[in-house]
Specification:
- This protein is of the alpha/beta class.
- 40% of the residues lie in helices and 15% in strands.
- The chain is built from twelve helices and 13 strands.
- Helix 3 (81-99) links the parallel strand 4 (67-72) and strand 5 (102-107).
Length: 336
């Protein structure tokens, strides 16, 4: 299944990773098509676009016609993740089966569940204890079942919490970078002094492209390399170096998040994943690096680029009134 220069790469999803992946594949000289519900602004001119609802297997298959490799970079609203995400994957899986394309799927780490701080490796069982974690494990099993039945070839790439220019709705998103640039404290759930792996979007895109263009990746599960793992507090120190002033932390306890979840759907969705920040959360990427070589972007470089991205796009406006951290801030203010 070697990928030649005329092999069409079809990327489902036009979020941060989908756009970065499409641009990276185009730079490799490969023909690329992005598939999404709505037309994408800002794609490289050499990248094509097709509109389709991926939950419709027929529409997804039509949009992927001619593909040699299909990349699944879709996501669903966090508060309805368990309900809406599986149908998206099933539509893309059907497209891969019908076209005969290799299916490269981006996954997070929810399926593993808590590990008591043991580094995450690809051979760990999918022993999730949360709703979203069990959903992810079930979605993974659907892919593996299709592979084992000979219906499709797959490559699964897993990454941790995203960050990068333009990544806003993430633990290491606007509540850290935008707040810091605006002189506010960074909002953070859990213990900032524990080691925690964060994945840089350009590295995720590079890793997925490797899985789609390397025969050795086929039918495997791979942890995608990224910057070195440090504590969140050390990351904030790097942010402070870039913006020229200290960055404080406004730590939100799990109990407070749970209480806010009684009235706010986003907080209810967040609280079950809080274990990731109550124990060391380290992604082991040695299998990928030993097989394909290369490494992630050095953390200071990635942080500097992310700060520049926020600064250039002026993403420093006040948080919307329905955001989780606005609610937290208002709750704290009412106690003063």
């Amino acid at each position: 299944m070697s990928v030649g220069e005329n092999s069409l790469q079809v990327v489902f999803g036009s979020g941060q990773v989908g756009r970065a992946l499409a641009a990276h594949l185009a730079r490799l000289g490969l023909p690329v098509r992005v598939v999404s519900r709505h037309r994408v602004v800002g794609l490289p001119h050499v990248v094509g676009w097709r509109g389709a609802d991926a939950t419709d297997p027929d529409a997804a298959s039509d949009a992927a016609q001619g593909a040699s490799v299909i990349y699944q970079c879709l996501n669903a609203p966090y508060t309805k993740w368990a309900e809406l995400f599986p149908p998206l994957q099933r539509g893309v899986l059907a497209a891969a089966e019908r076209t005969g394309a290799l299916l490269v799927t981006l996954e997070n780490l929810y399926g593993y569940g808590p590990t008591d701080g043991v580094p995450l490796t690809e051979d760990l069982p999918l022993a999730a204890t949360t709703v979203k974690g069990r959903t992810r494990a079930t979605m993974t099993q659907e892919l593996l079942t299709a592979r084992d039945a000979g219906r499709v070839h797959i490559a699964i790439g897993r990454a941790s919490d995203f960050f990068g220019a333009g990544v806003t709705e993430s633990t290491l998103g606007k509540r850290v970078f935008a707040n810091a640039l605006a002189g506010r404290r960074a909002d953070f759930i859990g213990n900032p002094d524990l080691a925690h792996t964060y994945s840089y979007v350009p590295d995720i895109a590079t890793g997925l492209a490797t899985l789609g263009t390397e025969d050795r990746a086929i039918d495997g599960v791979w942890h995608l390399p990224g910057p070195e793992t440090v504590t969140t507090r050390q990351i904030l120190d790097l942010v402070a170096d870039e913006i020229g002033h200290p960055v404080g932390i406004r730590s939100v306890s799990k109990l407070a998040v749970r209480a806010l979840g009684l009235v706010n759907p986003m907080m209810r969705a967040l609280v079950e994943m809080a274990y990731e920040f109550d124990e060391p959360f380290v992604l082991d990427t040695s299998k990928f690096r030993a097989t394909f070589g290369g490494a992630g972007t050095p953390l200071p470089t990635a942080i500097a680029a992310t700060v520049d991205g926020y600064r250039n796009k002026a993403i420093t406006t006040a948080l919307p009134t329905d955001s989780p951290n606005h609610i937290i801030s208002q709750r704290k203010a009412s106690r003063r």
